[in-house]
Amino acid sequence: DHIVSPHGFSYTSASLSPYVYAPYTYAASPYINPASVAVAPVNVATSYHAQDVIGQASYGHVDAYQAHHAVQDAAGNKVGSYSYVSPEGKVVKTNYVADATGFHVASNALPVGPTVVPAPVVDTPEVAAAKAAHLLEVEKVKGRV
Q1: Which of 33, 45, 68, 135 can bridge 82 by disulfide, Cβ–Cβ 3.0-4.6 Å?
Q2: Whether the Cβ atoms of residue 108 and residue 95 lie closer than 8 Å to each other
Q3: pLDDT of residue 128 exceeding 80
Q4: Which GO terms describe its molecular function?
Q5: Is 111 exposed, middle or buried (0-12, 13-18, 19+ CB in 10 A)?
Q6: How many angstroms separate the Cα of 69 from the Cα of each of 39, 61, 72, 85?
Q7: How do residues 34-81 score in pLDDT, each as one tens digit?
Q8: What are the phi and psi torsion angles at 84 (to 5°)?
């Protein structure tokens, strides 16, 4: 086959034999042994803060062992969450709301109360008599009004 290129060069398909690459071996570098290079672990950390002129804000930070994120409205109410790795290796997660009604939190690190409901308290005879006398006096006062 005779082939002519768009630029006017002509050649035969026999001259297009596949090129055979010779194997290449890389010699070890006499200067650096990659196995002997110590690489320090990288602790990537980031933080952010954005706020407008009326006080609304969003802010937080993240690194290898802890994170925090919060948003705040113009009235100062905040909603956020944070997490960290405890000394025991447990990931502690906390969500919170801070507003006019107080600080409200939910976390996997809070203690859990007992699941057994205690028996009701039974009044002693003296307490039962005092309650009855008190209620009798209350009814007498109500009758006068």
Answers
A1: 68
A2: no
A3: yes
A4: structural constituent of chitin-based larval cuticle
A5: exposed
A6: 31, 7, 10, 16
A7: 566 566 666 778 999 999 999 899 999 998 889 999 999 999 999 999
A8: -155, 165
DSSP line for the chain = -EEE-TTS-EEEGGGGPPP-PPP--PPPPSS--GGG---PPP---EEEEEE-TTS-EEEEEE-SSEEEEEEE-TT--EEEEEEEE-TTSPEEEEEEEEETTEEEEEETTS----SSPPPPP---HHHHHHHHHHHHHHHHHHHH-
Q: What gap in Å lies between CA 142 and CA 119, rounded to an integer? A: 34
> What does the block give as tokens for 38?
């110590």
Specify the pLDDT at position 53: 92
**By residue range, what is the domain housing residue 91?**
65-110
Domain count, the chain: 1
55 part of a folded domain: no
